[in-house]
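Step 1: inspect the first sequence and its tokens.
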Amino acid sequence: MNASFLIATKKLCRNIALGASILGVTATASFAQAPNYPTQNIKMVIGFAAGGPTDVIGRILAQHMSASLGQTVVVENRTGANSLIATKEVAKAKPDGYTVLFASLSHNVNRLLLNEKADYDPLKDFAPISLAANLPLVLVTSYDSPFKTLQELVAKAKSTPDNVSYGSAGNGGSAHLAAAMMATQSGTKMLHVPFRGNAPALTEVMAGRVSFMFYPSIGIANHVNDKRIRVLAVGSAKPMEDFPGVPTMDSSGFPGFEQTAPWVGMLAPANTPKPIVDKLNVAMVQALNLPEVQKRLKELGAIPVGDTPEQFREFLVKDQARWAKVIEASGITAE
């Protein structure tokens, strides 16, 4: 056998052994991070204003996850551009488990609307942790609004185009998509007024300066009881017991609105070690299964989920396809 060939073979074997050793050390280091993790505060970035649905649920989970993880989960609101600012910040964060994103459906929608300009990929740039909850939408207007039924609102929109306005948490958000879908189905033209979060948008609706909006059912019952808003229709498959006598969008002539229910969930930057992702998932699912959390979320109109990272990833893939169809049918653009 050629001597040079034998020397090359020995060198190759040494390199393979060295590579395997390095990989083994890397894997061991990765798995070793989980038992000691976390050793410092965890930052939960939320792309919407304090007091809105995503923020409220995120803070409930942050409180209970802090207790189980032994370190404080600190909520940081990074508002603007329908959570695009927050999403990009977390996508570029160090994948060490100390920065996570509490996201909504805008996670997929921003990318669909902006394409490469979004500067992130909702699947490739993130490690899903768990889907937290779904929040059926309800169509609300001011309690003193001239619109007492959905039919009256649609009739006004048909008779005076652009005189009926609707609020949202930002371009491409759940409220925007739902209202645009309703406008398409009813053949009307209405004015979209985006805000930096659902909470400020709802404030303007309650004041009567914006005609209506689609809002996650979270906390709405309290405003109804205080006679600050009126619910004209619910976007769930069946009537909601919190709003007796209020029809569904489907029964009002607008089918398919139960699919517009926004979701909220937690993601980490891509390449976050799986043991850390799994530890965050366990803490989050445990929090969602606590009786007091279940009770609180039900009071807010949210439907708790709490799935695995793999299930959440599968959900995100299907969610992306669903909203791509809605955006195409409604003709929504990034502007």
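Step 2: inspect the second sequence and its tokens, then contrast the two.
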Amino acid sequence: MRQPPSSIVWSRRRVLSVATGLIAANLAAPARARAFPDRPIRLIVGNPPGGINDQIMRAAAVDAGKKLGESLIIVNKPGAGGVISFLSLKGSPPDGYTIGVTTPPLWRQPVIEDVDYDPIKDFTYIINIAETVFGIVVPQDSPFKTWADVLAYSKANPGKLSYGAPPGQNQTSHIMVEGMARKEKMQWVPIGYKGSAESIPAMMGGYVAFSMEPMVSISSLVRSGKARLLAVATPTRLKSWPEVPTLKELGYPSIIDSPTGLAGPANMPPDIVKTLHDAFKYAMEQPSLISVLSQSDQSPRYMGSEEYTKYVVRAAKEQRDLLVSYGMAKKK
């Protein structure tokens, strides 16, 4: 039988060799990364359902999810001044599929107590969305019609006045009222709650004299006539409540900055950070979130990833100095 030419034999061998090499190369190469996201994203909220951050994030998550092409699942992890949620976020893979709400307690708690995280090194800051506005509120049937009534009662009954401070002691509500009490040289008893979902029923039930609450949590009660605002912690009076004085007007110039944003674990890839940032920036511009903020007298406050990171570094130092001066910092 006649043999084929050697050139043809070598050609077939070469073909087989090349094919085998290509198969091996494909098997050894990593699978091509899928576009982010390709599955639902967990969004951790360190407050109970119905609280300020829960309401804001549920509104934002709907439109952000539309932009991302995947749903966002709200996971509520309240307690310990937010530390439970922050630790859960820190311990998650930095792949963008777990993000969480970031508020001042994130950089405040390490000053107050020993926590197993560093607010600067252990997180990737994505975007800031809103500014939380606070107000002092009492039930409609409260004997306190004005802030002056509260002060008069306090002077006549030293040490007997208690107030609601969500989401817990040594947090924004408590720090603001503590500054006011120090100016008045009075002692008021702070009662910490995990969130407004707990503090508002306590206030309405008369268990505390008043509560320092986020406006998003109390606006509907005030509008319905069930509660009354005594003051708001804003630079100027709110358009919705022009008759309600600001704390500054009442002689308390210090207003605590209280932004609400989003972060992920440390070392998130920049492209994933940008994708998430763009989705929530889009959500900020949509009617649903704008409506939630407007109806509750909250303010949108945008900071991009770089600006937000710089803000946290600066705010962490400012909060440390303030807490040390108030005697709230942990003992070294």
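Step 3: confirm your contrast with the notes below.
The domain at 134-232 is CATH 3.40.190.10 (D-Maltodextrin-Binding Protein; domain 2). Residues 1-10, 18-32 have pLDDT under 50 and may be disordered.
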